[in-house]
Amino acid sequence: MNYENELIKLINKKDIVTTSEVENEGIPRKYLTDLVRKNLIIRIKHGVYISKDIEEDRMYILQKSYSKAIFSHETALFVHDLIDRDPLKYTVTVPTGYNATNLKVQGLDVYFIKRAIHMLGVEQGETIYGREILIYDKERTICDIIRNRSTIDADILKVSLKNYISDKEKNIPKLIRYSKKLRVEKILRSYMEMLI
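^ thats the sequence. predicted structure below, dont judge the formating
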């Protein structure tokens, strides 16, 4: 068996692999090091390797490297086309108690939320390169920016709410349900009254 070719096939198929996935395929881990030295793959962190083809897709790499990090706030607004300004920094939400040091070192804005509601409103989104990522849906994102309105640019808040209201795919009952769970129902209603 040509382990190097098998490893290249696996990485091309999955874009990102871990050392344990490689070993589960019966490929010795030393071939990961060999391919990194030959500049055929990239080691992004301990035990995680990517294909050279996805080097530019930072959102996808972050998602695969930190599976508990859900894209949220301004990043989610941009992906959902609720704002047209590309965020300067990616924003993610992780469960309370999660060690987010590495995320912060990489320049991400990190929010923490109770584990019980961390996965509320999570859906599959896409990076600009068409790869799947986990992101909060529009309704959860609206609630999050209202919940954290003191740290969100006022213009972003205003524009995203206006765009959500005019969105044909909005789901007001879901938005109200989420606002109750996230304890922003009264504030949300006052914003909505101003916009309608």
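The chain has eleven helices and eight strands.
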